[in-house]
Amino acid sequence: MSKFGIFIKYWLPTLLWMALIFSASADSHSSEHSSLLFLPFLHWLDPNISDEMADKLHHLFRKCAHLTEYALLALLVLRSLNNTVRKGLPFWSWRRFGVVVGMVFLYASTDEFHQAFVPTRTPAFTDVLIDTAGGTAGLLLAWLWQGTGKNGRGRGWKARKPVRGIVKKQMG
């Protein structure tokens, strides 16, 4: 496959997802705009819900969206790196984990910086931390999924078997 084909296959989805995240930082996706859909929906589900509770649920929903979009970003970056950079490394390595989390943190930081220039958005370092936590959670899910191959033995990391001598000494 050509270098362009590799780019299209592995990096273009990642870059498109990053562009989608960037566009979500615009005015049209601000809390004020999303509340126009979300709050009436909550009131439709429960007409007796208080405005305070509806606002809290809206805030929680938005933070969960941050977690999810950055979990997907981390998975896409991991996929891109695993298929284009140092292909000899195993699917999971702490070095690769650190690189992906670092990239997610940097992108989340640029996203918040971008929001500083959008009048209806408020940049917050806590959002960077939430985004990074989402990326980390996505990677941990990938790690767990990778470890559940046939008979639970794993594909990328291996469950360690107990060393019999140590187990016997501790038990006896």
The structural class is mainly alpha
Structure annotation, total helices: 6
From N to C, what is the helix and strand string?
HHHHHH
Number of strands: 0
Determine Rg (CA atoms, Å).
21 Å
Percent of residues in helices comes to over 70%
Strand portion, in percent?
A: under 5%
Unreliable residue runs: 150-154, 156-172
Q: What is the domain tally?
A: 1
Q: What's the end-to-end separation, in Å? A: 59 Å
How much is the average pLDDT?
80
Main pleated sheet: none
Approximate shape: elongated
What secondary-structure arrangement, pairings included, does this model have?
Layout: H1 3-24, H2 31-45, H3 51-84, H4 94-115, H5 125-146, H6 164-171
Characterize the structure shown.
Helix 3 crosses helix 5 (125-146). The chain has 6 helices and no strands. It has helices at residues 3-24, 31-45, 51-84, 94-115, 125-146, 164-171. The protein is an all-alpha fold and 172 residues long. It starts with a helix and ends with a helix.
Task: Record keyword descriptors for this entry.
mainly alpha, 172 residues, disordered C terminus
Give the structure's gist in a few sentences.
The chain has 172 residues and is an all-alpha fold. The protein has helices at residues 3-24, 31-45, 51-84, 94-115, 125-146, 164-171.
